[in-house]
Amino acid sequence: MARPTVARIHLEAISHNYRLASRMAGDARAMAVVKADGYGHGIRAVAHALAEDAGKYAVACLEEARAIREAGLTHPVALLQGVHQQADLKDCVHEDFEPVLHSPAQLAWLSASTEVPRFWLKVNTGMNRLGFRPEELAGVWSGLKAAGHDSNLLGFVTHFACADQPGNPMTAQQTQCFEQATAPWPELMRSVGNSAAHFLEGQPLYQWSRPGIMLYGGSPMEGKTGLELGLKPAMTLEAPLIATRTVRAGESVGYGATWTADKDTRMGMVAIGYGDGYPRHAGTDTPAAIGGRRIRLLGRVSMDMLAVDLSSVPDAREGDTVELWGDTVSVDEVATCAGTIGYELLTGVTARVPRIYQ
User: Fold this and answer.
1) How many CA atoms lie within 13 A of 55 on its CB side?
2) Which is deepest, 247, 295, 330, 331, by most CB within 10 Å?
3) Is the pTM above the cut of 0.85?
4) Nearest partner of 212 among 347, 81, 324, judged by Cα
5) Is 303 assigned to a binding site?
6) Domain span at residue 329?
7) Tell me: the pLDDT tens digits for 111-120?
8) Which residues take part in binding substrate (predicted)?
9) Which of 35, 57, 206, 274 is catalytic?
10) CATH code for the domain of 189
11) 318-335 mean pLDDT
12) Residue 206 is among the residues annotated as catalytic for this protein
């Protein structure tokens, strides 16, 4: 029998979250961001779940876009990192992929290509990862027009640095910068809205928004869980309780002996660890659940196991299922305890953990 440590993927939850994003986007359309293997949920299954609702997908790279085509779907796909070599542009033409171009090198490949796809331009409005500075756009446009490629330009994209912090003025500054930079081309489309931007009152999202983490039930907002934002968790990570024992007062548990019992404590071992993608830095007091009742972790997470306190569930027995995150415990809570974000936890669940689609 296979080890019953699994990630249950709730496809209807993903559809619910996408529909919520679409409503929140107002007049904008929402392209479904399914990069990083659908944020760890399985890109093919996620793309199929959204096929009737989503008008466009967004991924990071060509390999992810090809996975959507291999799943039999023909929707347009935006490549958020653009292309990594000139030959990729031909694939984009034939497969209806829309690269987001962000560098002079990519523009040079475009000029040297005999086949040119529809594409976007990335504008650097202050995040300073990728994109052309606003003052460079006029020159970029002139080059595209001279090469006869201006008619292939779909529009402009930027990315917010601090939209997860509602009171941070940087989002308004980036929005103003973007509007001014793209004002000479009002006929072209614009896209700025990551998941967090959907939750900012009055934030313009233009023609296309780009919901990502919110599709999977994770929170894009600082200090809020996905459940508090009306999102449904799309992944339930669960593992079996494989042993129980009473740790006597003064005894410790696990590597480093980082937790010591101050009284006799019934505890259990769960068959999951950092080898499965559960965060090693989640320690004592990180929540989990059995049968909808919350419990807590004890000590240090091992590669294949972790310890839990069973004091609040005296009827728990070997073979019971432990929820590491899902409906009872938000992935965002676990992330906070581990000093990270839900994005990392969802995308970090390893291939050793089977995905079961429901």
Assistant:
1) 8
2) 331
3) yes
4) 347
5) yes
6) 235-357
7) 999 999 999 9
8) 129, 303
9) 35
10) 3.20.20.10
11) 98
12) no
